[in-house]
Design a protein that fits this description.
seven-stranded mixed beta sheet, 29 strands
Length: 698
């Protein structure tokens, strides 16, 4: 460490509260954010200038290779480091604008790998972070959360520096707050190892270049403890002394009990979007940061939602959209279009996207969003798979972040647009007429639920306290004279009346390919539910079939009581025959012969997914602007669309499985139907080919 004289830090007024400055459309197409991207935080939106004044110490170090010329031990030297410590703990105010202590420390003593252009090429160097308006708001919210005993949950786009910020947050507690414990948790070791290395690099930098040198009582990859050993002169016993702050990393996959008996000022949940059983891990960790109803530390959950492989981010999504229920800081959801309710902290790609950041660290959001959309459009044309990945990793909204990219079977982004239309467009929001089917005077009739006494299951997933009785929902009633074969029903039955599972019976009614005057190739009704007695469901299913002209029911025939019910009722003709043509194509030399319904195995699921995908991408026409209309654009059911978006083999997707049974019946009769003209769909063929590659056929 160099010595001679103290360098006085200049503190001119450098920030302007520019009330005239507004960001035009910071999130495209979201009116709620048009004027102020941080209005939901209660913080004032600022336009920053000359922000280097917040980094005078790091700027001096970069120029000279040390922080102060003051000789060690002099009053000037002590004054310098005392003032720096105060700023690192309490914050620093210039021109009426304050940055938090953690933010000041990060700017002047944190280390990151940053890309620079040295005139010949771009390369990475180990250097200090730069001021960003994105970080200004984040650190203020984090400080407020700690003050109020609230955790933070963060969904973010890729490459927003949160691993660096959270690694330094560990160092901040370690270096300036005696006896602090910070736990870095992840599902697997590979997710925390890089962040832990970042923290160690920053600790080494501080030890080498500042007056805050701390020895190590423990120095392992997964555990650091500051302090030193001093032998007692009388007893000769070694005594641990010093700060005794700790950083502990653990994997919940391998050793979740490692933290038992500890407390933590902070607990970081790294890569929360790629964490199976996140909610259980969070609840198991309560004693670390919560004593009864008192928060003694705060949890910080962060990650990128688009890692969703096999539904691994379902808990992350649930907690993000319901943060207050989990003791996490809650904000108005101003991100998702026409959303109502709360959400966690969201960082979209436009908050920091080079080169769309000015010299003072203000995000040039409008330019960044235009650039993102141009890149999206280029990828969409060239490679749909790359397009899906970009949308989830560089999202405009949290909903985009939570779309599946890895292992996604169906076109999640296009389906998400359909879902938005169904939920927000007044023309579609009231689709579906719940009611009761009954028999009167030899006819099956429908009584709409005008008094709102019924509880149709119209969201996915249904909540633990939601009624699962269900009722039929009609999107399009049949004509008076129903041609034979006009309607078909796909059914996914549950195995028993009640169990610990969340499975529901689901029947989907479909209007066939035939070009009737009343339309074709459409979903027209559904009945999802699980009454106390399966007889109630099967009776309603029977009535649903007869209401739609004796529509045949294709069902999974190795579970439930469908076959026995219709046999008792003498109505076996309402059950569809086994789809032998489909089975023979999918399973060579199949010996299955059950006459009615369809059995399921992995190869049948392969085929069912392909049939659904082909149906979704089937063209129906062209809009006035020249864009294509596909079958998926005509889906009327919100929960069915939600299931298609989230579908994976290991999950519970009753509507998708019912749709699959329906597609087997459609495929079985495909060649005998009168088909609408449908030119070859390149996008559909591409996705079907990709789907073929995802599964190994036996």
């Amino acid at each position: 460490m160099r010595k001679p004289k103290i360098v006085k830090i200049k503190t001119p007024s450098i920030i302007t509260r520019d009330t005239e400055v507004k960001v035009a459309k910071p999130w495209t197409k979201i009116e709620a954010l048009k004027d102020n991207p941080v209005r939901h935080t209660g913080q004032e939106y600022l336009k920053f200038i000359n922000t280097e004044v917040f980094s005078e110490s790091s700027k001096y170090y970069l120029k000279n290779g040390y922080y102060t010329n003051a000789p060690e031990g002099t009053s000037e030297y002590i004054e310098f480091w005392d003032e720096e410590e105060r700023r690192c703990k309490e914050g620093y105010t210039v021109g009426g604008v304050r940055i938090t202590g953690e933010h000041y420390a990060y700017l002047n003593y944190g280390r990151i790998l940053a890309t620079i252009d040295d005139g010949t090429r771009q390369r990475k160097i180990d250097t200090f972070p730069k001021f960003l308006d994105m970080d200004y708001y984040w650190y203020h919210e984090l400080e407020e959360a700690e003050r109020n005993g609230q955790g933070m949950i963060v969904v973010k786009a890729r490459r927003k520096g949160y691993s660096y910020k959270n690694a330094f947050g560990m160092v901040w507690r370690y270096n300036w707050f005696p006896s602090s414990v910070v736990i870095l948790a992840a599902y697997e070791k590979t997710f925390w190892s890089n962040t832990m290395e970042m923290a160690k690099n920053m600790i080494n930098f501080i030890n080498e270049n500042t007056d805050w040198v701390k020895g190590f009582l423990i120095d392992r990859q997964d555990h650091i403890k500051s302090g030193y050993i001093e032998k007692d002169p009388i007893s000769g016993v070694n005594i641990q002394k010093g700060f005794k702050t700790e950083l502990l990393a653990l994997s919940f996959k391998d050793s979740p009990q490692k933290s038992v008996g500890r407390t933590a000022e902070r607990m970081l949940f790294e890569e929360a979007g790629d964490w199976p059983g996140l909610m259980q891990a969070y609840q198991r960790s309560y004693p670390l940061f919560k004593d009864g109803n008192i928060m003694i530390g705060i949890p910080i959950l962060y990650g990128t939602g688009g890692n969703n492989k096999n539904g691994t981010n379902a808990d992350f999504e649930e907690m993000f959209y319901n943060p207050s229920a989990y003791g996490l800081r809650s904000y108005e959801n101003i991100y998702d279009e026409n959303a109502v309710g709360e959400a966690g902290w969201f960082v979209d790609d436009a908050w920091y996207r080079e080169p769309y950041v000015d010299k003072a660290g203000n995000a040039l959001r409008e330019e960044a969003i235009k650039d993102i959309d141009l890149e999206r459009q280029a990828k969409k044309v060239a490679d749909p798979k790359a397009y899906n990945m970009m949308v989830t990793q560089h999202p405009h909204t949290p909903k985009e972040a939570f779309l599946r990219n890895e292992g996604a079977v169906f076109p999640a982004i296009e389906l998400y647009n359909v879902l938005n239309k169904l939920k927000t467009n007044d023309k579609y929001r009231k689709l579906g007429n719940p009611g009761t089917l009954y028999e009167e005077e030899g006819e099956i009739r429908f009584r709409p639920d005008l008094e709102k006494k019924l509880a149709p299951i119209m969201k996915f997933p249904h909540g633990p306290h939601d009624s699962i009785e269900g009722c039929p929902v009609i999107y399009q009633h049949p004509p008076d004279n129903i041609p034979h074969g006009m309607y078909k029903i796909g059914l996914d039955p549950v195995a028993f009346d009640r169990s610990g599972s969340k499975s529901l019976n689901c029947a989907i009614v479909y209007k066939s390919y035939q070009k009737f005057d009343h339309g074709y190739d459409e979903i027209v009704a559904e009945y999802t539910g699980r009454p106390e007695n399966i007889e109630i469901y099967n009776r309603n299913l029977e009535l649903l079939s007869e209401y739609f002209g004796g529509a045949e029911i294709m069902f999974e025939n190795d579970r439930g009581e469908v076959l026995s019910y219709f046999k008792r009722r003498g109505k076996m003709h309402l059950l569809a025959n086994q789809p032998d043509n489909v089975i023979s194509k999918v399973i060579k030399d199949s010996q299955v012969s059950r006459i009615k319904g369809c059995h399921m195995n992995e190869r049948m699921k392969d085929a069912g997914e392909k049939f659904i995908l082909r149906w979704l991408w089937s063209e129906r026409g062209t809009r006035e602007d020249g864009s294509k209309v596909y079958n998926m654009d005509l889906l009327p059911s919100v929960p069915l669309v939600e299931e298609l978006i989230g579908y994976h083999r290991e999950g519970n997707f009753d509507r998708v499985m019912a749709f699959m049974q329906l597609m087997f019946m459609v495929e079985e009769t495909y060649e005998s139907e009168i088909l609408p003209e449908n030119p070859k769909n390149v996008a559909a063929e591409f996705l079907i080919n990709q789907l073929d590659k995802m599964f190994v056929k036996k």
